[in-house]
Amino acid sequence: MAEQMESIGKECTPLKHEFDACFTRWYSERFLHGDKSNDCEKIFKAYQACLKNVLREKGLTKMISDARPSIGSVFTDDNDDAGDK
Amino acid sequence: YSWSTVSYAFLNRYPNPFATHVLTADTIEHRIDPSTGELHITRLLRKTNSVPRWARSIMRENDAYILEDVVVDPKGSTLVSKTRNITHTRLLKVEEKQTLTMDPFNDSRTQCKNETCIVSSIGYGLNSRIESFSLSRFSENIARSRKGMLYVLDLAQRRGLFRQRFRMEQRHLESQ
């Protein structure tokens, strides 16, 4: 899609756009056709690293990690991935 | 719209003119479960703080953040998205679950199911007022997100994304 969302950290926005472009291409051309390969891994790692810093600066890291296990708390989940790690 | 198309549109639904309250969207996790082939995505969304005036005095935080967890099963043509707010949880906890599945009787159609759970435990006699206010907004929000999805789907169609995918799906089927 033409317009793009910004990232929570302005410095991460270009990485995010690059990842999003890769993701949308990969999703429609590969993933939906049963191809499990993950083309966007490298760019995702770069984007993640940038995000980690921003989240830490904003003090969101703990809030997010506290919230994550309970995302399926109200609704029962068939694909519960919080179980085994 | 087929499930492939709808799931694609759903994952790319921002920005859209019906969701101007969503300011930023970041993917904080993206992985494929090797045993099931499912795609697991976690996203952090930042929204404008649309708290009603009477509740503003109880709020400390300014930015509203939402965590979204999406699981996509391409083989079973199912996408499940769960979102919950991670800020202002003292005031209100809203969890939403959206399920997109291929219509079992027509594979060019998609079924969408929305569930939500709204709980307020702030006390001060405000709980039910907060909950019913939120519930009343829920159906507006559903209508708005549906408009947003249709907008994104329509855009994708006009850009020929459907035709491309249709061609690719054809080729994929023929190669089997």
What does this structure look like?
Chain A: One of its GO terms (biological process) is phospholipid translocation. Chain A: This is Mitochondrial distribution and morphology protein 35. Chain A: Keywords: Disulfide bond. The complex is a heterodimer of chains A (85) and B (176). Chain A is an all-alpha fold. Helices cover 49% and strands 0% of the residues of chain A. Chain A has helices at residues 13-29, 41-58, 61-67. Residues 72-85 of chain A have low confidence and may be disordered. In chain B, helix 1 (3-11) packs across helix 2. The longest helix of chain B has 32 residues, at 127-158. By secondary structure, chain B is of the alpha+beta class. Chain B is globular, with a radius of gyration of 18 Å. In chain B, 32% of the residues lie in helices and 33% in strands. Chains A and B meet through helix 1, helix 2 and helix 3 of A and helix 1, strand 1, strand 2, strand 3 and strand 4 of B.
Write the SSE topology:
The complex is a heterodimer of chains A (85) and B (176).
Chain A: H1 13-29, H2 41-58, H3 61-67
Helix pairs in contact in A: 1-2
Chain B: H1 3-11, E1 22-32, E2 39-47, E3 64-73, E4 78-85, E5 93-102, E6 110-119, H2 127-158, H3 161-175
Antiparallel strand pairs in B: 1-2, 2-3, 3-4, 4-5, 5-6
